[in-house]
Amino acid sequence: MIVVKLQGGLGNQMFQYAIASILALENKSKLKVDNLFFENKEKSIGFTPRQFELSVFNNKYLVATQKEIKAFTNLSKFNQVRHNYGLNYPKVFVETYLGYHNTVLQLKSPIYLDGYFQSYHYFEGYESFVKDLFSFSTMNLDEKNKKILTEINNSETVSVHIRRGDYVNDKLTQQFHGNCSKEYYLEAIHRMEQKSKGLTYVFFSDDIDWVKEEYANLLVKKLFVDENKGSESWKDMFLMTYCSHNIIANSSFSWWGAWLNSFSEKTVIAPKKWFLNTDANEKTKDLIPESWLRI
């Protein structure tokens, strides 16, 4: 059995579920999710309550019981003996640093995974498998989003994701993550304009009213997506995947919007400063694919 601890928002959950699914595939093993993280509903400094969001994809999710989780965290005498004799036993793998761990894909079931696993290297050779896991259905789109999708499909577009929320409003989160500056977005748009003219920039944000005001005078063709909030936020990611190109924030949400984009000629621009925390930022070479441009 593979059990993965889910935590964070949709983008983080996708990274965690993807690596666990790959391991379950390779081990021909059952996959279950540990959802206990989502039981904490209290906002505190440095912590934003989240919900299980993977239900937007058409996968069957088995939830691990506390007894099954305890089998990994508190070894039975039988499994302690197996451990002592070098035999296979229920193991816990805790990600100890950000970045790619080249031993993860060699892990053998039964295993409990605890980490974020944010690296495109984990998906190398499994791209089609992961994209199938996270396949959106247009059947779940409302009429307004279907209209936006039609606009996106009928022109050359650039998704622009501006992440604010707890990156701005929570002191500890701000100190660790930081948020992308307006200068970053203006430079990214300038780079896009050098590559192609007549682009339409599709803005997405968890604070779209602020974005509308801040970028109102930007002299490019603009479209602001302002309907998808709360449990409907996944629709923003869906629409990002259909844009011709992507300008992403320092956010796993728009990372997935760009990575799932199947347009063969896409240009993806990502920030060099993914984390405000210097030590953490140095590890992001494993997060951003080499074909993407970092500025």
Automatic annotation (TrEMBL):
GO terms for cellular component: membrane. It holds the Pfam family Glyco_transf_11. InterPro entries: Glyco_trans_11. Gene3D superfamilies: 3.40.50.11350. Keywords: Glycosyltransferase, Transferase. GO terms for molecular function: galactoside 2-alpha-L-fucosyltransferase activity. The keyword Phosphoprotein does not apply. It comes from the Bacteria. One of its GO terms (biological process) is carbohydrate metabolic process. This is Glycosyl transferase family 11. It comes from Flavobacterium frigoris. The lineage of its organism: Bacteria, Pseudomonadati, Bacteroidota, Flavobacteriia, Flavobacteriales.
